[in-house]
C-alpha cells in the first residue's frame, strides 16, 4: 500500500524555479496504475521547459519522462499488470503523471516488465530515447522511415544499405545505432566525440566521424565511406538547424532524414523526404506501435541485443535534479544519462 504523502520536485511557475515539496500521492483511476518511481532519467526537454516556457501551461508542474519502478497499486479494469511488477514507461507533464516524484500515475501500453538482469537506473534510459529511435526507423511516413520492423518482420531486412546517425553518443543516437545494426544496415556512420568511438562501434557503428569536424569534412568522409551519390537514410538525433542542414545535404536525390526537433531545413528539393519523429507513446498515432514496442522489446533487452545507456546517478534524490538539468543545459554531459532516485529524497 502506498503512503498518502510523497516528495515531488515542482516547477513552481512558468520560467520559475524547481523546488521539492510534500504533496499527496495520487490514486489510480480506471485503466491506470500507480508506480513507485525508483529511477527517473533527465532529458534536455526538462530544462527547456523551464527556460523557454514551452509545452506546459499549468503550474506548479511535475516534469520527468523516463520512469522505472514498481507497480504499487492497480486501478479498475487493468489487465496485464500486477502489484510488484518492475516496469519502465513514459511519464507525461502533469502533476500526477510526471516522473520527478516518488509515485506517479500511468497508463501502460502492453507488458512493460523490466528484465531481472537490468537495474532500475538502466531501465530509466529506455522509455523516451529507445522509443524515439524505434519510431524514426520503423514507423510509416511521415513519422519515420517505415523500414521493415525488427519486432515483426525479423532482422537484417536492410542489409546492403547505409545510414548516417548524427549524434551517435546521445540518448536517441545510441539506440538508433543498436536498432540499425539489428535491422541489418551494412554501413552505419555516426558523428560523435572520438573519445566515444570504441563504445559506439560496440553498439553497431561501423565508422565514427569527429563531431567537431566541419560540415565539408563530414560530407567528404561520408561520400568516401558510403559512395558519392549520397545516403538514403540520415537520422539526426541532435536536430539543431546546423545538423539538420548537414543531414539533408548528405541525402541522395530520393533520400530520407528523420528529425527529433522541428524542421528548420532550408533549400528543400523535390524527392528528398523529411520525417518529424514525435517519440511519445501518449500520442494516439503512436499507440499501436507503442503496444508492440512494450510487449516485445523486453526480450531484446534481456538477451543483451539492446543495451541501456551508461548512467550517472545524481546525489540527494529529487533535490539533485536541478543541478543535473543545469549541466545538461551547459552541455557538460557527454556519453552518459543522468538519473535520479526519488526514493532517496529526504
Automatic annotation (TrEMBL):
Residues 13-340 form the Enoyl reductase (ER) domain. GO terms for molecular function: oxidoreductase activity, acting on NAD(P)H. Pfam families: ADH_N (PF08240), ADH_zinc_N (PF00107). Transmembrane segments: none annotated. PANTHER family: HYPOTHETICAL OXIDOREDUCTASE (EUROFUNG) (PTHR45348), ZINC-TYPE ALCOHOL DEHYDROGENASE-LIKE PROTEIN C2E1P3.01 (PTHR45348:SF2). This is Enoyl reductase (ER) domain-containing protein.
Amino acid at each position: 500500500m502506498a503512503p498518502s504523502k510523497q516528495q515531488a520536485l515542482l516547477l513552481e511557475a512558468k520560467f520559475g524555479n524547481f523546488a521539492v515539496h510534500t504533496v499527496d500521492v495520487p490514486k489510480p483511476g480506471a485503466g491506470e496504475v500507480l508506480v513507485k518511481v525508483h529511477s527517473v532519467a533527465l532529458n534536455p526537454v526538462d530544462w527547456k521547459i523551464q527556460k523557454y516556457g514551452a509545452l506546459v501551461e499549468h503550474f506548479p508542474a511535475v516534469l520527468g519522462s523516463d520512469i522505472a519502478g514498481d507497480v504499487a497499486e492497480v486501478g479498475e479494469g487493468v489487465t496485464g499488470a500486477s502489484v510488484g511488477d518492475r516496469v519502465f514507461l513514459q511519464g507525461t507533464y502533469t502533476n500526477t503523471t510526471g516522473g520527478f516524484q516518488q509515485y506517479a500515475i500511468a497508463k501502460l501500453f502492453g507488458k512493460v516488465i523490466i528484465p531481472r538482469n537490468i537495474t532500475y537506473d538502466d531501465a530509466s534510459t529506455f522509455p523516451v530515447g529507445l522509443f524515439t529511435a524505434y519510431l524514426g526507423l520503423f514507423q510509416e511516413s511521415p513519422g519515420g522511415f517505415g523500414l521493415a520492423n525488427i519486432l515483426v518482420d525479423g532482422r537484417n531486412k536492410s542489409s546492403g544499405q547505409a545510414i548516417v546517425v548524427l549524434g551517435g553518443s546521445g540518448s536517441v543516437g545510441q539506440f538508433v545505432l543498436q536498432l540499425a545494426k539489428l535491422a541489418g544496415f551494412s554501413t552505419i556512420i555516426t558523428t560523435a566525440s572520438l573519445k566515444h568511438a570504441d563504445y559506439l562501434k560496440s553498439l553497431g557503428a561501423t565508422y565514427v566521424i569527429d563531431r567537431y569536424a566541419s560540415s565539408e569534412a563530414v560530407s567528404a568522409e561520408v561520400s568516401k565511406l558510403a559512395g558519392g551519390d549520397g545516403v538514403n537514410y540520415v537520422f539526426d538525433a541532435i536536430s539543431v538547424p546546423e545538423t539538420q542542414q548537414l543531414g539533408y545535404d548528405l541525402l541522395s536525390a530520393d533520400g530520407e532524414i528523420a528529425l527529433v526537433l522541428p524542421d528548420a531545413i532550408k533549400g528543400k528539393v523535390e524527392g528528398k523526404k523529411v520525417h518529424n519523429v514525435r517519440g511519445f507513446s501518449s500520442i494516439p498515432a503512436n499507440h499501436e506501435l507503442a503496444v508492440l514496442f512494450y510487449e516485445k522489446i523486453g526480450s531484446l533487452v534481456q538477451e543483451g541485443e539492446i543495451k541501456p545507456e551508461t548512467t550517472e546517478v545524481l546525489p540527494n534524490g529529487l533535490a539533485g535534479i536541478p543541478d543535473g538539468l543545469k549541466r545538461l543545459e551547459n552541455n557538460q554531459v557527454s556519453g552518459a544519462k543522468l538519473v535520479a532516485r526519488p526514493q532517496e529524497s529526504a
